[in-house]
């Protein structure tokens, strides 16, 4: 990478990566295996790609995997957060600008597209780009050239474009908030990443990965999940998907005083805040399971004090003591 490109990217926060948050593309579910196969198939092509999925599912990880398996792997990967900027500032960051082209333009700049020349640009949340800027983006893609703000001379570029969104672009096209011609230009290949709640088989693999990362960070022995802890993780809805799981595992690792992570080390919202009640009869949460989670949450809030937990739950403390014994809730949080 040239020094000019390096300096530009280092000075522009919109190109910061979130790779450390979401981790690697890991899992054994059929859905993830299908995505991995699709990545291998399309990586060697030059076509544009749209990656769809909820926030935190790992869209940037998929984009990086495509880049790393392509002929551009030894070139730069430039992630751009399209929610960060708008208007002329965003235009200048995408396409560059000439010195003096607007107030504050004290020097010529490359822009993300020219910085990504010969590599891959990843436009995260492309649905957030304003409609007038979409027309300029379309021209860049059609002509494979960028004209910086304040200049008339186009600069040829060789960039593979990968986009991501958690919105329905087809609906936005119908509503007139996303250009149809840009949509059709970008939507050559589409990959959809299912939410974590639809690929429960991946939770253990991902959780262990994040726990191991914490052990490496602190140079400590690895920690494992107790079976009852894994059951809670698998029953949870994961609205924040893989990113949320990473945060929960960091919390649990720090909060656990033993090498086996038990439910009491999980955040309260995982235990009680977003309990999933599946319609499927085979996986429907039992009354005992819900009762156990409520008791764990109360004991966690009261640091193991049963009298205080009983008041919080509005039950007799003797009844709580029997339930604690019945569910074998060892107070490892003290």
Strand content: 5-15%
Radius of gyration of CA atoms, rounded to a whole number: 25 Å
The CATH class label of the largest domain is Alpha Beta
Helix content: 40-55%
Order of helices and strands: HHHEHEHHEHEEEHHEHEHHEHHHH
CATH level-two architecture of the largest domain: 3-Layer(aba) Sandwich
Shape: elongated
Layout of secondary structure:
Layout: H1 3-10, H2 19-22, H3 30-42, E1 49-52, H4 59-68, E2 77-81, H5 87-95, H6 112-115, E3 120-124, H7 131-143, E4 145-146, E5 155-156, E6 160-165, H8 169-175, H9 180-186, E7 189-192, H10 201-218, E8 224-225, H11 227-235, H12 241-255, E9 260-261, H13 268-273, H14 287-301, H15 306-313, H16 317-326
Helix pairs in contact: 10-12, 14-15, 15-16
How does this structure look, described?
- The longest helix has 18 residues.
- Strands 2-3-6-1-7 form a 5-stranded parallel beta sheet.
- The protein has 2 domains: 192 residues, P-loop containing nucleotide triphosphate hydrolases (Rossmann fold, 3-Layer(aba) Sandwich); 128 residues, Helicase, Ruva Protein, domain 3, CATH 1.10.8.
- It has 334 residues and is an alpha/beta fold.
- Helix 15 crosses helix 16.
- Strand 4 and strand 5 form a beta hairpin.
